[in-house]
Amino acid sequence: MPDLLVTGGAGFIGANFVHYWLREHHASRVVVLDALTYAGNLANLDAVRGDARFTFVHGDICTEGLAAGLLRDHALDTIVHFAAESHVDRSILGPDAFLRANITGTHELLKAARQVWLDEGRMPVERVRFHHVSTDEVYGSLGFDDPPFTETTPYAPNSPYSASKAASDHLVRAYHHTYGLPVTTSNCSNNYGPWHFPEKLIPLLIVNVLDGRTIPVYGDGRNVRDWLYVEDHARAIDAILGRGRVGEVYNVGGRAEAANIDIVRRVCALVDDRLRADAALRARFPQSPAATGGDATSLITFVADRPGHDRRYAIAPDKLAAETGWAPRETLATGLARTVDWYLAQEPWWRGIMDGSYRDWITTHYATRERVG
Ligand SMILES: NC(=O)c1ccc[n+]([C@@H]2O[C@H](COP(=O)([O-])OP(=O)(O)OC[C@H]3O[C@@H](n4cnc5c(N)ncnc54)[C@H](O)[C@@H]3O)[C@@H](O)[C@H]2O)c1
């Protein structure tokens, strides 16, 4: 059973992965390395912090020698690399942090893996694996009638975020081809689910509807994304570690394409339904339109589009399905319902974030955007 270094494990997907992994793999140890940036939150790991198989290390993946020391000291044979600056809007406002974390950071981890696993030979090479978590955004944007991205779609990143992820993907590939490091890469679509930081579309929608705040929708809302429930993503990485071929890239998608405005309307309807059915929820969220007989869609405000906003992403997870048997378990309907119910049950978690510095950032950010409708 592999023992894992999970980078970025206090972030959204990383934390979900750690919970999933420790639940599914009882004999496995997990060391999380996370810098606890604004997006990292130790509360995401509360449920596993007492587990003897789990260790948290507060540190930066860019720090030379840090990851190598962890691989040695904890005798780890697998890296699952999530740590990144991940928000496209922030990459437009300030690209430097993205190049540092996503490119330099990934390179430091690759160097550590090469040094400890290959040069020092501390692990049988057939046992080790560097799994790199990347994004479908490296493939650029699709027209509405184009076929979905596959693993052979040429790279065409359009934002500083996706360009930095593309660079990291190339480094991972190069370390395999040049040094023989056993690597796999997954490029996934938009994740959603528990512990999702409320600057991203779906959690932002839920908390704004509950508090009766405006729902900002970019442009005409017709931008299309494929949505992947985060636990399906965790199972996909598990499948790749167990049954994926070394040196290969796997696309991971939820087979759930939807326009942003459709996601907005679905979430509005779900929150309205929950409140209409439950007086206690109406009392807890008196600002939400449904608490006073209204409709959450009344909060929708169209705002000026994000610069260079990709029109459509769609991803074909056919290779992953054929080689490992993986398939998403959640549909958009079941995944969104689970997500809304999680946010209703975990109000202290998201209140803690909304009451902190994040509120200042989002207020300034959206206040500077021109309203178009
Ligand atoms: N969220 C999505 O929909 C999505 C889609 C495709 C790909 N991805 C990729 O999945 C990975 C995880 O995404 P997420 O949404 O969970 O991100 P996130 O922003 O929620 O979490 C990132 C985590 O990385 C940590 N981190 C950032 N810089 C670090 C550094 N220099 N050293 C150590 N830790 C650092 C942060 O503290 C945080 O805990 C990223 O690589 C991202 O590019 C995400």
Bound molecules: nicotinamide-adenine-dinucleotide
Instruction: Report the CATH superfamily of the domain at 4-196 and 227-255 and 308-330.
Output: NAD(P)-binding Rossmann-like Domain
Reported by name, the CATH topology of the domain at 4-196 and 227-255 and 308-330 is: Rossmann fold
Strand order of the largest sheet: 3-2-1-4-5-6-10
Cα distance spanning the termini: 54 Å
Q: Which outline best applies?
A: globular
Q: Total number of β-strand segments? A: 12
Instruction: Indicate the mean pLDDT.
Output: 93
Provide the CATH architecture of the domain at 4-196 and 227-255 and 308-330: 3-Layer(aba) Sandwich
- Count of DSSP-assigned helices: 13
Work out the strand percent: 5-15%
Largest sheet, strands/sense/barrel: 7 strands, parallel
CATH class of the domain at 4-196 and 227-255 and 308-330: Alpha Beta
Helix content estimate: 40-55%
Protein architecture, described:
- With 373 residues, the chain is an alpha/beta fold.
- It has a domain of 245 residues: Rossmann fold (3-Layer(aba) Sandwich).
- The protein is 43% helix and 15% strand.
- It is built from 13 helices and 12 strands.
- Helix 2 runs parallel beside helix 4 and helix 4 packs parallel to helix 5.
- The longest helix is centred in the first third of the chain and has 24 residues.
- It is globular.
- Bound molecules: nicotinamide-adenine-dinucleotide.
- Nicotinamide-adenine-dinucleotide binds next to helix 1, helix 4, strand 5 and strand 7.
